[in-house]
Amino acid sequence: MFLLAATVALCLFGLLLVYSASTDFSFLVHGHASYIFNRQVLWVAVGAAGAFVCARMDYRRWRQFALPTMLVTLGLLSAV
Known about the structure:
85% of the residues lie in helices and 0% in strands. The protein is an all-alpha fold. Helix 1 runs antiparallel to helix 2. The longest helix is centred in the N-terminal third of the chain and has 29 residues, at 2-30.
């Protein structure tokens, strides 16, 4: 429970920092002061939904994805 609370607190703090840092730039470039903040909120929601789905899966199923995920990760690292 503590880990969940810490994660939520860090996400909220990060959203606050994004809003604070990008208001002027967002207004100048996009014409709306909270454009970048709204996109960040969207991606936090997508990440939270993905984390919820992953947390609900049985951890034994992750074993079958370990090798393909590692190979894809190594491939992506070598492409950089």
